[in-house]
Amino acid sequence: MSIQRVASKWTKTNVILPNPTLAPYIPETRLYTFEHLNEMLSVYGTVYIKPDNGTYGKGVMRAERLTEPLPPTEEGIIGERIWYVLRYEVDTLTFDSLEELHKVVSTRIRKRPYLIQRGIDLLQHETRPFDLRVLTQMNLRNHWETTLIIG
């Protein structure tokens, strides 16, 4: 039995999604486009933008759509201010428009395939966020085996 490694997160996602037991645990994931960025930020507020082929969090960005109410106008119209925040590596950038955010993201990803994924809230321990990664592989007896758990 040969070992088959699949680097593409997009391919892995599309293999898992048809499984009704696993699909509910997979955050919505799409190929990165301006339209998908707009739609997913409007729905979820926070998204992760990650390389299709990548490991150890390299190249991952977090984008947020933030709002705050504006005071009513003399006509009684209530509005809101919308802005966007992009975090990557140690940098945090703020933008007044989605187009500005997309321009910076596009410059960073260039022509490489990237995914955009619904942001999920991380668990916290003593106010510090963390997540758990579990590596499960098919062994030589054709049984699934957990080979690594890391926080």
Please give a structural write-up.
The protein is α+β, with helices and mostly antiparallel strands. It has one domain. The protein has helices spanning about 10-15, 35-45, 100-110; strands spanning about 30, 45-50, 60-70, 80-90, 90-95, 115-120, 125, 130, 135-140, 145-150. The protein has a 6-stranded antiparallel β-sheet, with helices on both faces. The mean pLDDT is about 90.
Write the layout of secondary structure elements.
Blueprint: H1 9-16, E1 29-31, H2 34-44, E2 46-51, E3 61-69, E4 80-88, E5 91-95, H3 98-109, E6 114-118, E7 123-125, E8 128-130, E9 133-138, E10 144-150
Antiparallel strand pairs: 1-6, 2-3, 2-6, 3-4, 4-5, 7-8, 9-10
Features:
151 residues; two-stranded antiparallel ribbon; 6-stranded antiparallel sheet; 10 strands; single chain; 3 helices; alpha+beta; elongated
The main sheet comes to: 6 strands, antiparallel
Sheet with most strands: strand arrangement: 1-6-2-3-4-5
Count of distinct structural domains: 1
SS-derived structural category: alpha+beta
As a percent range, the share of strand residues is 35-45%
Compute the average pLDDT.
Answer: 91
Number of helical segments with 4 or more residues: 3
Helicity range of the residues?
10-25%
Q: Give start-end ranges of low-pLDDT stretches.
A: none
Q: What Rg do the Cα atoms give?
A: 19 Å
